[in-house]
Amino acid sequence: MSRREELAERLAVVEERIDAACAAAGRPREDVTLVVVTKTYPASDVELLAGLGVSDVGENRHPEAGDKAEEVRADLRWHFVGGLQTNKAGAVSRYADVVQSLDRVKLARSLSRGAQAAGREVGVMIQVDFDGTDPGRAGTAPDDVSALADVAAELPGLRLDGLMTVAPLGVDPRPVFDRLAGLAERVRADHPGARALSAGMSEDFEDAVAAGATHLRIGRAVLGERPVLG
Ligand SMILES: *Cc1c(COP(=O)(O)O)cnc(C)c1O
After folding, report:
1. By C-alpha distance, which of 27, 17, 101 is closest to 59?
2. Percent of the chain beyond pLDDT 90?
3. Cα(110)–Cα(97) distance, rounded to whole angstroms?
4. Between 3.50.50.60, 3.40.50.720, 3.20.20.10, 3.40.50.300, what CATH number should domain 3-223 receive?
5. Which member of 58, 117, 189, 206 lies 3.0 to 4.6 Å from 79 by CB, making a disulfide possible if both were Cys?
6. Could you tell me if the CB of 217 is within 6 A of ligand 1?
7. Which 3-state string (H, E, C) describes 30-84?
8. Distance (Å, rounded) from C-alpha 56 to C-alpha 140?
9. pLDDT digits (tens, 9 = 90+) for 131-166
């Protein structure tokens, strides 16, 4: 089987699962965007996915993400989904259409400066960490979300799209996704345009759809197991 056929097959299975999850939740399929997380996979896979109808891809590291965004010819939306150092924000804002991992004011300011310098608008989602036990984990505490949303919404060059979370390992993700949805509702009261809810990965995206996710970040279910953990 060619790589194209393999990706087509896996993508079709994922699409079927998304259709079924939307039907079960009584939600229109168009409300949910599949972001295929292509980290560690080559640019050639990204091109194949674009040819198969994928519109959004996700990457979690700079410069890997930037190199791929430059190499890939297809017109795609690039989502940056990884922890981001402030000193790399300028570079990332030149190619990312959306940064889903905004978790602090300093990073928001750097992304804003970078977006303005590049003459672009960068969408941002605030990454929320509901775990709180691991200081190394990316994400802002739930209590800090609304202040960060206010800052991001005001900064030139940024567009506040919504919220994102990565469910902690080894716990039932559904209550986490429900908390994210509740928090997002409060953010929308002040920022009606912040409608995105990015939740759900290969293992748990049905739960995310049930909780109202608008963006699913799916890697392995489409691309196969990663040879090296990304
Ligand atoms: C890698 C990654 C994903 C995709 O994970 P899979 O288990 O491969 O589906 C989603 N979100 C983030 C932030 C990631 O780093």
Report:
1. 101
2. 91
3. 15
4. 3.20.20.10
5. 58
6. yes
7. HHCEEEEECCCCCHHHHHHHHHCCCCEEEECCCCHHHHHHHHCCCCCEEEECCCC
8. 24
9. 888 877 899 999 999 999 999 999 999 999 999 999
